[in-house]
Amino acid sequence: MALIVEFTVPASKFALFNTLTTVPNVTLELGRVIDTTAEDITIYVWARAQDFDALEAAFEDDPSVTSFTLSSETADERSYRMTWDEPIDLLVHIMTEQQGTIVHAASQNDTWALRVSFPERDALAQAQELKELAQQNEFSLDIRRIYPTDEYRRAQPVITSVQQESLVKAFEAGYFEVPKEVTLTELADAQGVSHQAMSERIRRGVHHLIAQTLITGDGHDQDEE
């Protein structure tokens, strides 16, 4: 069974540190990693901020950000597709050397809190390897918990209230019928949101439902699309 390793690292040793120190009251969450190499990391980032203009200006000035594009938005949250030019050694190591999958990662003041699912049974050895990598790079990595993947799923809310509302309305309108009885644009117009925002709500809601009801902890990452 796959195991979750939960740990924190200093924000200064991860990506988007300049953004976090420049923009007050911002919360960032990492989404799906699209590509991870020694020179290029493409990832989705969800952001909640009081001033999105200031946030995007900070992205422009952040040395870890090569480019970013707005993927979707609601009144208080935006999703960005972002490329990191600066190698993030810890993330690259997790994704490539240890074949780990980021379950969740979020900024918390001056730290990043990460939950990573590893396919190997010996999560203790992998956690120790992460700590040694941190020591080599002269920063501390605080292991908080190690537990089975199914325990994590049971502890998490399945979907947010917004995602639930969007999925229910989509179902009632016949969006999941074959052929569809309503378009995504029509659903978005009915709820007063953009096409992208509605698409993101449905995609994320379906992703969470599958992850928490159908995935049995075999260690394989599931494509969100």
Explain what you see.
38% of the residues lie in helices and 29% in strands. The protein has helices spanning 17-22, 52-61, 89-97, 123-136, 149-155, 161-172, 184-191, 195-213; strands at residues 3-10, 27-36, 41-48, 65-73, 78-84, 101-108, 111-118, 142-148. The strands form 2 sheets. The chain has a 4-stranded antiparallel beta sheet with strand order 6-7-1-8. The chain has a 4-stranded antiparallel beta sheet with strand order 2-3-5-4. A hairpin with a 4-residue loop joins strand 2 (27-36) and strand 3. The longest helix is centred in the last third of the chain and has 19 residues, at 195-213. The model is unreliable at 215-225 (pLDDT under 50).
| Topology, number of strands | 8
Q: Helix amount, in percent? A: 25-40%
Rg estimate, integer Å: 18 Å
Largest sheet: 4 strands, antiparallel
In short:
The protein has 225 residues and is α+β, with helices and mostly antiparallel strands.
List the helices and strands and how they pair.
Blueprint: E1 3-10, H1 17-22, E2 27-36, E3 41-48, H2 52-61, E4 65-73, E5 78-84, H3 89-97, E6 101-108, E7 111-118, H4 123-136, E8 142-148, H5 149-155, H6 161-172, H7 184-191, H8 195-213
Antiparallel strand pairs: 1-7, 1-8, 2-3, 3-5, 4-5, 6-7
